[in-house]
Amino acid sequence: MAKIILFDGICNFCNDSVQFIIKRDPDGLFVFASLQGEKGKEILRQRNVPPQVESLVLIEGDRYYVKSTAALRICMFLRGGWKLLQIFMIVPRPCRDWFYDVFAKNRYKWFGKKEVCERPSIDFRSRFLE
């Protein structure tokens, strides 16, 4: 079963992160949708994800994960040494999420943002839910 990553489609860092994940997920375990798109909004409603979630959501079956837990769970499935980041799961979630929130709050300032969500390239379009 595919795992769904919902991401901020106007965030440059988030878009680059999607490309990073795709390169390390050659088996296509992950599929993607932007939080701003209709499909992303529909998935959030279906899973009862709180409306204040603005950056990263990982959907695995009937469960969803947000913030640092979502990021670390994604790393668990990537090829290469990224699995080693699981060690940070021992850090209490509120502490991990504090660092995540600081980064998320500044992501537009540090990396910029787009006016509209970027369309995926033809090579990877099948990995995006529309």
Automatic annotation (TrEMBL):
It comes from the Bacteria. Pfam families: DCC1-like (PF04134). This is Thiol-disulfide oxidoreductase DCC family protein. It comes from Halalkalibacter alkalisediminis.
